[in-house]
Design goal:
Blueprint (H helix, E strand, L loop, with lengths): L2 H7 L3 H12 L10 E7 L18 H9 L1 E7 L5 H10 L17 H7 L3 E6 L15 E4 L16 H15 L4 E7 L10 H5 L18 E2 L6 H31 L6 E7 L4 E2 L4 E3 L7 H4 E2 L1 E4 L8 E7 L4 H10 L13 H4 L10 E4 L5 E4 L3 E4 L5 E4 L15 H17 L13 H5 L3
Parallel strand pairs: 1-5, 1-7, 2-12, 3-4, 3-5
Antiparallel strand pairs: 2-10, 2-11, 6-9, 7-11, 8-9, 13-14, 14-15, 15-16
Helix pairs in contact: 1-8, 2-8, 6-8
């Protein structure tokens, strides 16, 4: 990558944000042949992104992406298994749908786009993703460097994210449109190798020094856990998110330099979240359905800025990406089902009818149901949390509202039963208490 590109990483976040304001300009023309970039960031915690409420982690590039685009506040992973998530994203099949009920020969997202003459590229730093169902339909599969650092890097370009974004930008510079680039980046859950100063910037003068390891913690917390230890873990992760933000800003600059900004739609989503002590665990946990793990960011920026600075509370999930990308890049409407629906009408502020509940699939048959007003985690006993006020699910109210828990459990059974065949609106609507909560 040209040195001037990496020099931009050494600017302060404020300088980068101001510079991008001038470079991007105003996008006014809608184009017929649009490119697509989907940045799929595994283990991105929504609570560390400014557009999702963070007030202490600096994410100017991500916040600019949100300000220039459209934010889905209620985007929920339907599973914490990578293979299930990509079955949703690439095949449009919800994690709670039995695999045997999938239509035989159903075309993957890359296949549908490829049939329209769009060059499809999958870039991933996890080789297992390149072998998942649906990946073989990408015209090109680019294996990015895997995380290998054992300590914080001395420079940004020596970090794992620095290396993979350099290869992504190099690939973009070689692509002629129209193209569709799906990037799977796993390092937030595999290595925290941002330069130490990036994590230390979040330590107050009287705080202990943040940890110096690059290894991602993965363990339950002891009841008497030292709070300074958890603080250091949060600071280390914040530094890694800051690194991600700088790299996203560099990618934005590269698109502008290549003249692609006005003809490229960009989605940025968290594939899964990360536990940072909210429920007694830290690290990439997969056997729970807690909010910090399943409630993840989704931001959409389109060349036509008519939808700039928009956001909505619509309940959306990974399977919705399949029809959304299909309609956006091919002008072909994908069939709308309860499990998969095009998000573009919401981005265009058309306010279509929408689902009032979404289901989540856990391990060992565990399930959860999310409405705008509640999260029900099934189990023995079930756990019930009032949303959106109890963002990180601190107060289990199942014992005080057992009637609500029972009704939501029944609604979940009906949702799962009809999920493979139901169209949007086929389910009887939930009453206002189940849908919006008690307030």
């Amino acid at each position: 990558m040209a040195k001037r590109t990496w020099d931009r990483l050494r600017l302060s976040p404020e300088q980068n944000a101001i510079d991008r304001d001038f470079r991007h300009g105003k996008l006014t023309d809608t184009i017929n042949e649009m490119n697509g970039i989907c940045l799929c960031i595994d283990r991105l915690h929504a609570g560390f992104v400014g557009a999702y409420g963070s007030t202490w982690v600096e994410t100017p590039a991500l916040d600019r992406l949100a300000a220039d685009g459209f934010v889905f506040d209620q985007f929920h992973a339907d599973s914490l298994k990578v293979e299930s998530l990509y079955r949703s994203c690439w095949l449009g099949r919800h994690a709670l749908e039995p695999p045997e009920l999938s239509p035989p020969g159903a075309a993957s997202l890359a296949a549908v786009l490829g049939e329209q003459g769009i060059r499809t590229v999958l870039a991933t730093d996890d080789p297992a993703v390149a072998s998942l169902p649906g990946a073989d339909a990408f015209v090109e599969r680019l294996l990015l460097p895997e995380p290998r650092n054992t300590e914080p890097a001395s420079s940004i370009e020596a970090t794992h994210l620095g290396r993979v974004f350099a290869e992504i930008i190099q690939k973009l510079e070689s692509l002629d449109g129209p193209f569709f680039l799906w990037c799977h980046l796993s390092s937030l859950g595999r290595v925290w190798d941002a330069p130490w100063k990036m994590r230390s910037r979040y330590a107050e003068a009287d705080d202990p020094d943040p940890p110096t390891e690059a290894e991602v913690p993965f363990r339950p917390l002891a009841e008497n856990e030292d709070p300074d230890l958890l603080l250091g873990i949060s600071q280390a992760y914040a530094g890694q998110v800051t690194l991600l933000d700088l790299c996203v800003g560099i990618l934005d600059d590269a698109l502008a330099d290549a003249g692609m900004a006005n003809e490229t739609a960009t989605f940025l989503l968290g594939l899964r979240g990360l536990a940072l002590g909210e429920h007694g665990h830290v690290g990439p946990i997969d056997d729970r359905l807690d909010g910090e793990l399943v409630h993840v960011p989704l931001m959409v920026r389109l060349p036509d800025l008519a939808a700039a600075a928009g956001r909505c509370q619509t309940l959306a999930q990974p399977a919705d990406l399949y029809p959304t990308w299909t309609s956006l890049l091919t002008d072909t409407a994908a069939p709308s089902r309860l499990a998969t629906a095009d998000l573009m009408p919401w981005i265009r502020d058309e306010q279509p009818p929408w689902r009032d509940r979404v289901g989540l699939a856990g391990t060992d048959g565990r399930r959860a149901l999310r409405t705008l007003g509640w999260l029900l985690n099934e189990g023995s006993p079930p756990r019930l949390f009032a949303k959106p006020d109890d963002r990180w699910e601190v107060n289990d109210v199942a014992d005080r509202h057992s009637d609500v828990a029972d009704q939501l459990s029944t609604a979940l059974d009906e949702y799962v039963r009809q999920l493979p065949t139901a169209a949007m609106g086929d389910l009887p609507p939930l009453d206002d208490v189940l849908r919006f909560g008690l307030q």
